[in-house]
Amino acid sequence: MPKEVKTKKEKKHFFKDFKAELKKVIWPTPKQLVNNTIAVITIVLITAVIVFVLDLAFEKMNTYGINKLKEMVDNKNEISNNEELANSQESEEQTQENTESEETQTSETVSE
User: Which residues, 6+ apart, have CB-to-CB distance to 28 below 8 Å?
Assistant: First the structure.
């Protein structure tokens, strides 16, 4: 039974302390409340606009950068493709020249 009595006293003591603390609180006047609310909403809106503008700016920069990288890669691919094409044409020409020279040598050998 002493535990039950002690628990009840603790609850009463808690609520007395709670009520005493609430009396110490300095509550804002309605005018202060409105002013503070307007200030908070204004700051939140300004912050939202700044974040929105920065988000758009970074998105545009990112898109621009990615497009530039794509162009660079495409240009490199075109250059390497052109080089490969030129190399393959050169090797074909050399093969044809070698074939022609072999044919010439063969015909010269046969005619001798």
Answer: 36
